[in-house]
Amino acid sequence: ASVTRFAVVTTLTVTDPDQLRRGCAAMRNLHASARLVMHPAYGQQAAAFSFGLGLGVLACDHVTLPKVLTE
Q1: Phi-psi bin for 17: left (phi > 0), alpha (psi -120 to 50), beta?
Q2: Full pLDDT tens readout for the chain, 71 residues
């Protein structure tokens, strides 16, 4: 058996804070049942949303790493 790494971008659009709480809980449950690890994009919502549009914008092309990790 082989193991392949892949990424899935999911987005959630709501109109009020109560929907946001319920929607986030639903997303966490769905990710857990699919055995996916979810990493919320706190402070990076615009960039993360553009990755989910399917327009060929790749997250790996827009990642910045601290200098200590790239040396």
Answers
A1: alpha
A2: 677 777 788 888 899 989 999 999 999 999 899 888 888 887 777 877 887 787 877 777 766 766 776 66
